[in-house]
Design a protein that fits this description.
The protein has helices spanning about 50-65, 75-80, 85-95, 130-150, 160-165, 170-180; strands spanning about 10-20, 25-35, 65-75, 105-110, 120-125. Strand 1 and strand 2 form a beta hairpin. The chain folds into two domains: about 10-150, Nucleotidyltransferase, domain 5 (2-Layer Sandwich); about 155-195, no CATH class. It has six helices and five strands. Helix content is about 35%, strand content about 15%. The longest helix is centred in the last third of the chain and has 22 residues, at about 130-150. It has a five-stranded mixed β-sheet, with helices on both faces. Helix 1 crosses helix 4 and helix 2 (about 75-80) crosses helix 3 (about 85-95). It is globular and about 55 Å long. The protein has about 200 residues and is an alpha/beta fold.
Length: about 200
C-alpha cells in the first residue's frame, strides 16, 4: 500500500517526469500536492497501469488535488542542455506553476537539482511508494501521451500515436527511412532496428 507522502510536517509536492528515454518529443514533468485523506484505489506507478486506468486516475487527481501542475521541456532545449538537466528543468517549471507553494518536495529517482528555498528528498522508485509521486507520474505520462498523439497526425509514419516517441522498431525504422522530424532529439542515436540496442517500449 502506498503512503500519502514522504513526510508529514510540511506541505509536500510529489514530482515525476515522463519521456526521458524517447527519441522524439518533449520531456514532461508534473508536481502534485494531495490532501492528507486522498484515496484512489488504483493509484500506482503509471508504468504499472493501463491507458484506461491512467485516464480515470488523471480525472480524480486533477479534481481532488490541493494543487497540481504540468510542464515540459521541448526537444530543442533537451539537445542544448541534455536530457537529465531537461528533466530537472521540467520539474522546476511544474513546481513554479503550482498555485499552492510547497514546503517540501519528494522527487522520483536518485538525482535532482535543488529547487530554490525548498528542501527535497530523492526517492528511488518513489512512484511505487508514495501517492503524491504516483499522481505526478500519472499526470506527466497522460499529458505527454496526449501531446505525442496530436503531433502524430503531422508525421504519421513514425506512429507516435502508438509508441509515444519511444525507440520501438517501427519508430527507428521510420527515422532511418524518412530522416528526423523537427520533433526529434538530434543528440539521441537512432540505431538500425536489427542491432536491437533498445527494448521495444510501447509507452
Amino acid at each position: 500500500m502506498l503512503l500519502n507522502c514522504y513526510q508529514q510536517e510540511f506541505i509536500e509536492a510529489g514530482c515525476d517526469e515522463a519521456g526521458r528515454g524517447c527519441l522524439a518529443g518533449p520531456v514532461f514533468a508534473a508536481a502534485v500536492i494531495l490532501p492528507p485523506d486522498f484515496i484512489a484505489g488504483e493509484l500506482n506507478d503509471s508504468k504499472q497501469l493501463n491507458h484506461q486506468q491512467r485516464k480515470r486516475l488523471r480525472i480524480i487527481i486533477e479534481k481532488e488535488a490541493i494543487a497540481w501542475a504540468v510542464a515540459e521541456v521541448d526537444n530543442i532545449e533537451i539537445d542544448q542542455i541534455n536530457i537529465l538537466n531537461a528533466s530537472f528543468l521540467a520539474m522546476h517549471r511544474a513546481i513554479e506553476k503550482l498555485l499552492v507553494k510547497p514546503q517540501y518536495l519528494s522527487i522520483d529517482g536518485n538525482r535532482f537539482k535543488k529547487y530554490p528555498d525548498i528542501p527535497h528528498a530523492c526517492i528511488v522508485k518513489g512512484d511505487g511508494k508514495y501517492l503524491n509521486i504516483a499522481a505526478a507520474s500519472i499526470l506527466a505520462k497522460t499529458h505527454r501521451d496526449e501531446f505525442m498523439e496530436r503531433i502524430s497526425d503531422e508525421y504519421p509514419h513514425y506512429q507516435w500515436h502508438q509508441n509515444k516517441g519511444y525507440p520501438t522498431v517501427v519508430h527507428r525504422s521510420a527515422a532511418l527511412e524518412h530522416g528526423l522530424s523537427p520533433y526529434h532529439r538530434k543528440t539521441f542515436t537512432v540505431s538500425p532496428p536489427q542491432l536491437n540496442l533498445f527494448s521495444e517500449i510501447e509507452g
